[in-house]
Amino acid sequence: MGKKKKLTSILGQPVGNDQASLTTGKPPFTLLGDTHLIEKLAHFNRERIPERVVHAKGAGAYGYFEVTHDVSKYTCASFLSEVGKKTEVFARFSTVGGEKGSADSERDPRGFAVKFYTDEGNYDMVGNNTPVFFIRDAIKFPDFIHTQKRDPVKNTKDPDMFWDFLSLTPESIHQVTILFSDRGTPAGYRNINGYGSHTFMMYKNQEDYCWVKIHFKTEQGIKNLTMEEAGELAGKDPDHATRDLFDSIEQGDYPSWKVYIQVMTPEQAREYKFDPFDVTKVWFQSEFPLIPVGRMVLNRNPVNYFTDVEQAAFSPGNFVPGIWASPDKMLQGRMFAYPDTHRHRLGVNHHQISVNAPRAANPLSYQRDGTMSNFQVGAPNYYPNTMEEVEVSPEKLPPSLEVGDGVQRSEYELKEVDFVQAGELYRRVMSEQDRKNLVKNIAAHLQNAQERIQYRQTALFFKADENYGAEVGKALGIDMDRVKKLAALDQEERVAATE
Ligand code: NDP
Questions:
Q1: Whether residue 467 is found in the same domain as residue 349
Q2: 181 in ligand 1 pocket by Cβ < 6 Å?
Q3: Which of 319, 344, 362 is the last residue before a domain boundary?
Q4: Within this chain, do residues 211 and 277 fall inside the same structural domain, yes or no?
Q5: Would you say residue 387 lies in a domain?
Q6: How confident is the model at residue 45 (pLDDT cuts 50, 70, 90)?
Q7: Among all residues, which ones are annotated catalytic?
């Protein structure tokens, strides 16, 4: 041990005694004048900030992204401009529905968020380990999440809520199929792929753009837990994925992902058999092959969990020139919701917290003040001005898009095509063992819901693939003739028949 460090107050004043409160009398009464005691207790009382309403339990690390292939024909993004260019990143992985103390092995999609500190500002890729999502309109999101959380009366998770909503939301069938495969219980954060899920725009200039999907493929290989293994780990080692990420980086075994894009031209988008902006759909890789872009390596653990991971603030609306949004209704809603939650949890100056602050870019903005403002330059504080030489960058703007006229609440109409991709996954992609585990995982959960809900949901599996529905029905021990009849109805009739 070297020279001992001096304990101080939060303001750097030497502490004379940190074990006894200031008191008077025998027996002693504590004095309000003990400012050191009061500060300790008051600060402790305020240690918790609002928990993220989704993605509360997570782990994160720093690293870098390196361009390995030339994609400059698709985008003018500076951080993608040349092979070999490296950009610092911070990545956060998470479960979705569980609270901050919940088990890492719970069945859930895994959040996969990456902040790129680019030389043209921060770009966030805020995705999941699944390429699709349960719903395709943000207006359904609060209801959907309520059903994955706790019953408002009993404060317990409720299979009725869970399956009632999903069976009333048939567009969820693709994501439900992925969630209940063993990919819904990954062995660790290092063993998952990441997907931007939404469709994004990449553009070179105001005339030249394409649509892209983003894929991060794990170099550690996909590894999943069975339902039994996940259940056991939840009790024995609820933080196993958090520990695995931290320990592997600490030991110099740096996790890495290869990054790819799929590219669709605006003309192809107009003609594709699936709505290319519908987040419940993928683009088939045989039609839109994966194009390699780069590699992400995580090689530095945060020094402090709270400052870097708990306060990390990502937004799918944080774009840099060369990348922009698409007309995906979920993405449009998330672009509001994420910054809004950060303003609530961390305050209006959350971008000043070190993990969120731009590093490679020099911000010059005239936004000022607000709580917890840590650094900002003085005057001027308005634009335009003639006090300093400052200009905007119109050449960096994305292309303007033609949109039809009219303002309406345009609902997605449920179509047969909405069942195709879940069926493809079941029939074409999954192995025999994957299918067995999928059916077992579904039945173990769905059997706890009311029987009428079991019927309604099994009819949706049947619509995705007849064998899929039949296997689930068999595992639940329900009447398959009734399932088939329900599957033949349209959704409104099916709901009426199972009310
Ligand atoms: P391919 O047949 O070309 O490839 C299959 C894809 O499925 C791979 O990306 C594979 O990921 C992934 N996969 C394997 N098992 C599962 C699982 N249990 N849950 C989720 N994904 C899994 O795919 P297609 O493009 O022809 O699409 C067929 C189906 O594959 C889709 O309907 C969709 O369900 C699924 N899929 C498609 C993706 C896409 O972007 N097109 C992405 C992910 C899934 P890996 O190679 O890393 O093992």
A1: no
A2: yes
A3: 362
A4: yes
A5: no
A6: very high
A7: 55, 128
Nearest CA to ligand 1 atom 44: 131
Residue nearest to atom 14 of ligand 1 (CA): 429
The band of 449, judged by pLDDT with boundaries at 50, 70 and 90, is: very high
Ligand 1 binding pocket includes 274 (Cβ within 6 Å):
no
Among 345, 362, 379, give the residue marking a domain's end: 362
Q: What is the pLDDT of residues 194-216, one digit of tens each?
A: 999 999 999 999 999 999 999 99
- Burial profile 151-179: b = 16 or more Cβ within 10 angstroms, e = fewer: eeeeeebbeebbbbbbbbbbbbbbbbbbb
Domain of 99?
A: 30-362
Ligand 1 atom nearest residue 213's Cα: 40
Q: Is the pTM above the cut of 0.90?
A: yes
Q: Of all atoms in ligand 1, which is nearest to the CA of residue 181?
A: 18
9 falls within a domain: no
pLDDT in tens, 55-90: 999 999 999 999 999 999 999 999 999 999 999 999
pLDDT in tens, 151-167: 999 999 999 999 999 99
Contact status, residue 89 vs residue 325, Cβ threshold 8 Å: no
The answer on 338 and 253 residing in a single domain is yes
Q: From the alpha carbon of 438, which atom of ligand 1 is closest?
A: 18
CB of residue 285 inside a 6 A radius of ligand 1: yes
Q: What's the total number of domains in the chain?
A: 2
DSSP string, 37-101: HHHHHHHHHT-PPPPPSSS-SEEEEEEEEEE-S--TTT---GGGSSTT-EEEEEEEEE-SSS-TT
CA nearest ligand 1 atom 10, residue: 429
Give me 30's structure tokens: 């504590």
**pLDDT classification of 491: cutoffs 50, 70, 90:** very high
